[in-house]
Amino acid sequence: MKPMRRVLEVLGCAAAMLIVASAVRAHHSVAAGFDLDTSVTVTGIIKEMEFINPHARMFFEVEGANGETQSWTAWFTSANNLMRRGWRANDLPVGAEITVSGYPARDGSYELYGGETKLSDGRTLFGGNAPGER
Amino acid sequence: MDDRYTSPTMTTAALAVLAIAGLLATRPAAGQGAGLGRYEDSVCQDNHHAVFHACALEATLSGRPARTLDGRPDFRGYWRRRTWAFEDLEAHPVTPDDFGGPSAIVDPPDGVLPMQPWAVEKSRENNETYLHHNAACILAGPAGTMYMTSRFQFLQDNENLVMVGEQLTAHPYRIIPLDGRPHIGDIPMWNGDPRGRWDGNTLVIESPNHNAKYLLDQRGRFITEEARIVERMTLVDENTIHYSATFDDPNVYTRPFTIAFAFRRDTDENPEIWEEACFETNEDPMRLFRNNGYRVYPGITAMEARALKAEWERSQR
Questions:
Q1: Listed residue (B53, B34, B14, B16) closest to B259, CA to CA
Q2: B145-184: b or e for each residue (b if 16 or more CB lie within 10 Å)?
Q3: Contact at 8 Å (CB) between B14 and B115?
Q4: Is 60 exceeded by the pLDDT of residue B15?
């Protein structure tokens, strides 16, 4: 297995991983669970990709700052939307490296609502909500 | 004035809003559809609901819609709704949480919901306390389904119009009997008890016995189970449906209000409605929502609404 690597960038927030719940404006399902004022980018190794509805999800392992293994979940838009965009199961095999950018969970768990998703072959797919699909 | 509505707060018509909106609105080119998919051009621009509504009312007067074998306007095909009203019925900006858009409210003409003051407060409380029903994969109500769901296939014969939807509200379907049969009655249903009738080239749908346990938008706006909802659907041209819904609920509003928007024929290659089993992963997102203190909106009965209104009025003395 390739070594796990973790890259964490928090944009617009000084302290990485100090995920502070933003002011309540959670009228959407995404905003109710994820902090839309903060972005996070995480790189890890795919354990499983589930093409399911209403939100597809990917389980992946990330190496933490102290070398520990963190089990992350990336949530995406629906499997139907991903399929119509051209996502395919073969693009996301178990064991492949993946980099996902998105909004972190408001409760501090290792979860994010994924937007741009960079595959190990350099392609970038979009996993968030797009106006044409909602 | 309808004397069932007792609140004195009545907004006046703001015709200038329509005029300015008409100047600002631009007609989307064929195939662009303002980011909402692929569409053919329409005789009415549809990126401002009030402008579209005014244009559609004119256009349908002289229109000759395609017809089914029994001579009724033919709504069959694949359609996409053209509004973000589920975020906010009123005009709202683009944010990380919203796609934004103009007000879906065409009456009153100022595009502002005629809510009673206590109900404005209740909406704020709803927004801070409750999840919008789509987060819990719950149906959106008869009219809400039409602006919540993105993709539709309409099937039609002389007895029924069947609307099969995909996306955002529990894989919804609506079956609208067109043959004059009576309502089922008595059973409160999420999407009501619909019956359709023809008013010339317009299909008029009434759906009593809805349970009103859904929010009207993601700003916490609501109705009670006593609300009368009248939907109207008319073909503007081959690829455009003019849809409107009038909500009449004196428990919550100072007067009836009407929303309107377009459905455009989906011209993607080989359009198809797919299963979207909204329950597959929803227990996990619900855990996140509960961890953040949110609950599923329980609805409000007409009796509860009247009690809240009376309590609010006492507090204002």
A1: B53
A2: bbbbbbbbbbebeeeebebbbbbbbbbbbbebbbeeeeee
A3: no
A4: no
Q: Looking at residues B263-289, what average pLDDT do you find?
A: 83
The tokens of B309 are what?
Answer: 């209104």
Rg for chain A, CA atoms, rounded: 14
**Is the Cβ pair A133, B132 closer than 8 Å?**
no
With a CB cutoff of 8 Å and minimum separation 6, the contacts of B25 are B45, B47, B48, B51
Using an 8 Å Cβ cutoff, are A111 and A75 in contact?
Answer: yes
- Indicate if ipTM > 0.90: no
* pLDDT averaged over every residue in chain A: 79
Q: Would the pLDDT of B93 be above 90?
A: yes
What is the least distance, in Å, from the CA of B132 to any CA of chain A? Answer: 6
Q: Minimal CA–CA distance to B154: which of B74, B40, B72?
A: B74
Q: List residues of A whose CB lies inside 8 A of any B CB.
A: 21, 24-34, 36-37, 50, 52-57, 73, 75, 78, 80-81, 105-107, 109, 111, 130-134
Cα(B125)–Cα(B213) distance, integer angstroms: 16
**Rounded Cα distance, B145 and A8, in Å:** 39
**Does pTM top 0.90 for this prediction?**
no
Residues of B in contact with A106 (CB under 8 A): 288, 291-292
Instruction: Test B292 with A33 for CB contact under 8 angstroms.
Output: yes
Within 8 A of A30 by CB-CB distance, chain B residues are 97
Per-residue pLDDT band at B2 (split at 50, 70, 90): low
B38 → chain A, closest CA residue:
A132
pLDDT at residue A15, rounded to an integer = 33
- Averaged pLDDT of chain B: 86
Tell me the two tokens of residue B295. 């609950």
For residue B35, pLDDT over 60 is answered with no
Three-state DSSP class for A20?
Answer: coil
